[in-house]
Structure formats: structure tokens, C-alpha cells
Design goal:
Order of helices and strands: HHHHHH
Number of helices: 6
Radius of gyration: 22 Å
Organism: Halolactibacillus miurensis
Helix content: 55-70%
Number of strands: 0
Shape: elongated
Largest sheet: none
Strand content: under 5%
Protein name: Transposase
Distance between the termini: 77 Å
């Protein structure tokens, strides 16, 4: 008779959290273990639940890379710093994609761009 989202909390244990982290990668596993060691169980499980919800917005490799950067940056990893790293990496990737698209649109035959060819730099 219990709703699904209530049953989720029954399965939300430290062991289950570590098993989930192992499906993401080695750095995520270290991050989750660190949270469980440094905080009270309830606080750690709440933070881990928030991290798991991030899986809806980010790909697994993005989450693993962010965990790696977090662990390299600090010995006391936190959820807020992890989320900041994830968002910053996402913005950088999006900006890089925009730059690539702009450079594809601008070629040497475009009449209004004066580049090295115009000033005699490229021959």
C-alpha cells in the first residue's frame, strides 16, 4: 500500500548508495564513501539522494569527471561544490560547441571578414 516514492526511502541505505556509485565510476564511489564517512548517516544519505537526482540532467561520464575534479580539488568534498563543478563543465562544453558552430559558418570567402589573407599574413 506504500507509494513508490516512499518505498524508495526504504531502499536508500549506505550499502545501496555505494552500489549505485560503483555503476557510475571509481571517483563517484570514493566521493560517496567520503560523504558517508564524514557526515551523519541521515545527512549523507540526503546528499547522496540529491546526487542521484542529478543523473536525470547529466550523463554518467559528466558525473564521473566532476567527481574526479572534486576529489583532486579538496579532501572534504561537498554536494554544493560538486554541483558547481558539474554546472561549470556543462557551460564550458556548451560554449565550446557554440564556438565550433560559429567557426564553421565563417569561411575565407566571406566578404566582410578581414583576416590574415587580407593583410598579407597567409600566403
Amino acid at each position: 500500500h506504500m507509494p513508490d516514492h516512499h518505498r524508495y526511502f526504504l531502499d536508500h541505505t549506505p550499502k545501496q548508495s555505494i552500489e549505485w556509485a560503483e555503476t557510475i565510476g571509481e571517483n563517484m564511489t570514493i566521493f560517496i564513501r567520503t560523504l558517508l564517512e564524514q557526515r551523519s548517516e541521515k545527512q549523507a544519505l540526503t546528499q547522496i539522494m540529491h546526487i542521484r537526482h542529478l543523473e536525470k540532467r547529466f550523463e554518467i561520464d559528466e558525473m564521473e569527471n566532476a567527481a574526479q575534479r572534486l576529489l583532486l580539488a579538496t579532501h572534504n568534498p561537498t554536494l554544493s561544490v560538486y554541483k558547481t563543478i558539474l554546472n561549470r563543465n556543462k557551460k564550458r562544453a556548451d560554449a565550446k560547441g557554440t564556438d565550433d558552430r560559429l567557426s564553421d559558418k565563417t569561411d575565407e570567402s566571406y566578404g566582410f571578414v578581414r583576416g590574415a589573407n587580407y593583410y598579407g599574413g597567409k600566403k
